[in-house]
Amino acid sequence: MQAAATAWEQRKLGDCGATYGGLSGKTKEDFGHGEASFVPYTNVFDNPIADSERLEAVEIDPKQNAVKFGDALFTVSSETPEEVGMSSVWLSDQPNVYLNSFCFGFRQNGSFDPYYLAYILRSRGVRNNLVLLAQGISRFNISKKKVMELEVPYPQLEEQKHLGSFFFDLDSLITLHQRERFADLDET
After folding, report:
1. Nearest-5° Cα angle at 123, 121 to 127
2. Up-side HSE of residue 150: CA atoms within 13 Å toward CB?
3. Which of 4, 69, 98, 123 has the fewest Cβ atoms within 10 angstroms?
4. Cβ-based burial of 29 (10 A; exposed 0-12, middle 13-18, buried ≥19)
5. How many other CB atoms are there within 10 angstroms of residue 93's CB atom?
6. Is 48 strand, coil or helix?
7. Please, what is the Cα angle at 30 between 27 and 31, to 5 degrees?
8. What's the CA gap between 185 and 188, in Å, rounded?
9. What share of the chain is helix, strand, coil (3-state, %, to 5)?
10. What is the mean pLDDT of each run of 10 residues along the chain (188 residues)?
11. Continuous segment of H or E residues that includes residue 175
């Protein structure tokens, strides 16, 4: 006899945490040096899980919001609606790391396994809903408030952990095969 499958709930992101802004009050002279770092836009855009080594220098500023382990980072602007609202999850405990000013952070309250959150926010269904929130003509933007109203699939935490681990392993395997493929091409 099979156990009955538990249906996944849908939860609004805003019911599972709060948002914070990226760097503010900075001029170009503030960048490129300092003892702190910030996560650049391209790191968020390119990676479901942010690359903790792909940071840029900035001065320490206690007035800024520090990025914490498990935070989801979202781009707020892009040239096309399909590229707005790209997300990345931060999985490092580095001190004095901030977020670039063209993104916002979402500090979840422990409702989500961070690996699951990284991949569910990049899933086709969630991405399609984020694209619908894009507003603009020549440049597209997304509202933090609207993103927080977005409902995402919410399985039990144990299932989230299994799914997050599965997708992380799959992503790692794909990356490994791509590197091998490019190495083979470089040799020819």
Report:
1. 75
2. 25
3. 4
4. exposed
5. 10
6. coil
7. 105
8. 5
9. 35, 25, 40
10. 65 96 91 94 96 96 96 95 95 96 96 95 95 93 96 88 78 70 69
11. helix 157-187
Q: Residue with structure tokens 């910030």? A: 38
Q: Whole-model pTM?
A: 0.86
Task: Kindly give the pairing relationship between strand 103-108 and strand 17-21.
Answer: antiparallel
Q: Which amino acid, 129?
A: N
CB of 39 closer than 8 Å to CB of 92:
no
Q: Which helix (H) or strand (E) holds 83?
A: none
Conformational region of residue 34, where left means phi above 0, alpha means psi within -120 to 50, and beta covers everything else? left
Q: Which of 47, 13, 12 is nearest to 119 (CA)?
A: 47
Identity of the residue numbered 4: A
Q: What is the pLDDT of residue 159?
A: 85
Q: Where are the alpha helices (DSSP H) in 22-156?
A: 41-46, 114-120, 124-132, 144-148
